[in-house]
Amino acid sequence: MGSRVQRIRALVWFVLWASGVVNPSTVLLGQEEELMSGFTGFHFLSIEKSCLFLLKEQASHPDVLEADAKQIAEMARQTFDTDGPLLVVASGRDTIPVSSAIKHLAPENVFVVQIQHPRSHLNRFDLVITPLHDYYPLTPEGQGQIPWFLRRWITPREPPGSNVVLTVGALHQADFTALRNAASAWHAELAPLPRPLLVVNIGGPARNCSYGVDLGKRLAAMLQNVLWSCGCVRISFSRRTPEKLSRILMKEFGTNPKVYIWDGEGCNPHMGHLACADAFVITADSVSMLSEACSTGKPVYVIGAEHCTWKFADFQNSLQERGVVRPFTDVQVLELYTTQ
């Protein structure tokens, strides 16, 4: 059994970080973005809003199970002798009851990977993959921000164990293959554009990164400062972007021939932008957008990091310390710096 678990552990690592590995016995539960990030080359069948299952593209499966812990555990027991442990990958808090129940029902027949910190009882899972900044509450700075009478309620309470894999940012789909495919798909539209191409991704205020229209005004002013050094600029808003903020950018750049603003209609150019941009400006509120942009190895400028608090401020600091982002403050020329 030990050697089988070691093999499945190695498989998890390879699938998550190299992609393209086909495992005949894999079940996925949870949030689509983080689950699909490490499993390119597979076919996903969406069963419910919070439930995904993975099947080999070339394989047929008589019964696509729903998120039923008993059924999945039974399947694991039945296939164990021929296929080894069933790999169960779950993401998000909503999946914790199901994934932990599967492990409880078939402890010797499954290998359970939980993406995102489950907050407590990490020994319920074989592997936990979570961002480094989730452990900010255990740092001296984090402890200093928590009133003493609340410290027992703040998680996590213990340092990461041997079954915890820490990531700097969020898992995402923007790997080498995805970017190469996006570059090909968007070649006709983006390749002829004058360079350098600056992509601006704007999110929206969040609980731990709150800002208002003042950030929109500052962003507009900063973009005007560097516009002369850009071949062109492409701006995208998210669903969280306040209308007042987007209106500021539309008013400032809506008629500028060097600036394209995606209006939300037609194909989303996000992956094309990641593949083809020469540099990025991103609002500090979105861990996902920053993680994607930083993974490209291109220059990333951040605006609004001073508004981040708690572990999200720690995330911003970790990116700056690694040299993968720079603040978009008092920048007069777009510098295509080399990331570490």
TrEMBL record:
- Keywords assigned: Signal
- The superkingdom of the source organism is Eukaryota
Q: Which residues form the signal peptide?
A: 1-24
Coiled coil regions in record:
none
Say if the entry is tagged with keyword Signal: yes
Among InterPro entries, the record links this protein to:
Elm1-like (IPR009367)
PANTHER family, from UniProt? MITOCHONDRIAL FISSION PROTEIN ELM1, OS02G0535700 PROTEIN
Q: What is this protein called?
A: Mitochondrial fission protein ELM1
Taxonomy of the source species: Eukaryota, Viridiplantae, Streptophyta, Embryophyta, Tracheophyta
